[in-house]
Structures are given as structure tokens and as C-alpha cells.
Amino acid sequence: MAERLEAKHKGGTLRSRKIEYADADDPVELCYGRGWTDGLPVTPPTDERVIAMLKGTTRRPDEVIGKMPPFLADCTVEKVAINAVMAGCKPEYMPVLLAAIEAALEPVFTLHGVLATTYFSSPIIIVNGPIAKKIGMNSGINALGQGNRANATIGRALNLIVLNVGGGRPGEADRSTLGAPSKYTLCFAEDESNPEWEPLSVARGLARGASAVTLFQGHGPEAFVDQKSRTPEALTRSFASSLVKIGHPKLVQSARAILVLSPEHYAIYREAGWDRKRIERALYEATIRPGAELVAGTDGVGEGIPASRANEQVPKFHEDGLMVVRAGGKAGLFSAILPGWLAGRNRLELQPVTKEVRN
Question: Are 240 and 283 in contact (CB under 8 A)?
Fold first, then answer.
């Protein structure tokens, strides 16, 4: 009711262009007809709903966060709120969504490239810190799947903003050959239940206890199963056998990756005293292979590295190309791999981005 009264008596507070429609029209179908959806129904962004969404942040509605690719349109806080309504967000999600947009607009995230590539990639959002629990995000059972409103709608809102504010439409600026379900949404919180574990945001330079989002250019997940390895060394070699296949087994230093480590697999490392840095370093070393096995044309496979590298020991990733994140249900010796965009060979120009969430 408060928002209805505000919309009625402060009719000029919202600056976005209003769309008129007849009483007999279906606003959801109107959104479909104008191309404002990702293929799923959206919540019509009425004045009342947008005003309520804007109460989730103290930032001014007319504040320009940045230029949204591909058409570099001004992305205001109000435009974010409109798309957050359409995606199904709650107002308390706004600080996380705004931080995700700021991260996506950093030059090294190369959002335009992520959108326009023919590869599978889209933004993946990982949330750390107290904000995740405050807004009810899922880091446990089915963390990468459906069923949690915050996980589902924050990631969806970011993709809708690229579509509706930036103009990134499939078949136009979005040139993905096949696409991926992550183009709808892929957003989850890291499991920080073990105080011995260094959260991803801390590993990336923020203070422990700060709320943060990390954006990664990738897709997924790809399933990993190992129900028999019981030592960290054996499990690492097992993980490596899957990690080296990202993109193609003979493609090297061309993509980053995230390993989503489940609680049962993490327990094997924890009981042996392995921390994040040791796990990530061991995985990097385990994915180094003889160049002779990777040369283009070997075994009749055209893909591969130049013959000049045949005598090298060749890493699958750059040294900073692997990130480990903890999530998942407590039962099941299953983890997941989130492969990165193959443009990761340009690792200085293309990087994951971490931003602190500001209330």
C-alpha cells in the first residue's frame, strides 16, 4: 500500500519511459512481444514494484553505474530495479546485484566479449560473506540448481539487464553457437561453514567478513565423480584427469576453470591438512603434461599445440587459472567443474572480478 500511494502521489519519481497498455492486454505477453524476456515469463515492472525494489538500496535511482554493452547504454540504478522486478528479485537483493553489475562492467571482465562470443560463456556469480546468509542464498544441497529465489533471480537479473539495457539479444549481438543454461542464470554462495577454509573473496584480496561477489566468465557445470579416492594425492590426480579435458584435451592455457568442491571431497583434503592454496597448486601441477602428447596431428587429431613445444612440460592452465570454491550437499562424492571462456589465453586482458557489496 505504501508503494501504491507513493506511485500515485509522486508520479514523477520514476524516469524510465512508461509503456501504456489496454486493460484487456496481458502485460506478461506484452513483455514477450517486445522481446524483454529470456524466454521465461517475467514479473511486470509496475510503478509500485519498482519503487519497492529501489528501497533495497540507498543509491539514487538516476545514478549511472556505467555503460552496458553491447550498445553502451546508460545503466542506471532505476533500470537495474526494473529488471530486478522482472527477474523476480526481492529488494534486499539489490546490493548484491549492483555489485555484480559493477564487476561485470570492469574492463578486464570483457562483458561485451562474453556476450558476443560464439562460445558457451556467460557471467557466473559467486557470493561470499554475511550478505549471502542475510538474503537466504543457497550454498548447500542443489546450490547450482533450482529452488532458491536469491540464487535464481540475481543471476537472471544480470542477464536480463544485458538483454534489456545493453541490447544483447540472442542471434544479434549474442552469437553463441549453442548457448548454455547458465545464460539464464548461474549464481550461488560459497560454503563458509568451516572457519579453517579461506573464502574465495579473501583469497582474492578482501577482508574476512566482508560481503562480496566474484564474477567469472564461464558455463557449466560439468559433473565430476570419484567415490573411491581417499587420499588428497589420489583425489587431485583424479580431478586433473577431468580438468585437462576442458574445451579439448589438447587445448592448453586457453581457459580458466572453477572447481566446485563438495563437502565429502573437501573432507579428504581437510583431514590431511590441505588448505586452499595447497589444493589449487597441486591441481595446477597435476595438469602438466608432456608436450609430445599434445602436438597437433598426434593420434590423428588435428587440434593441439605447435610441434615446437613437443619437448616441453605443458600446463593446462596459467598459474592463476584455477579457483576452488566450496559448495554442495553433505552427502555425495560428487563435485563440479565450471569451465571458463576459451579467450582465457589472454589472461591479463581477461580476468575474474571481485567486488565488495556495499549496503
Answer: yes
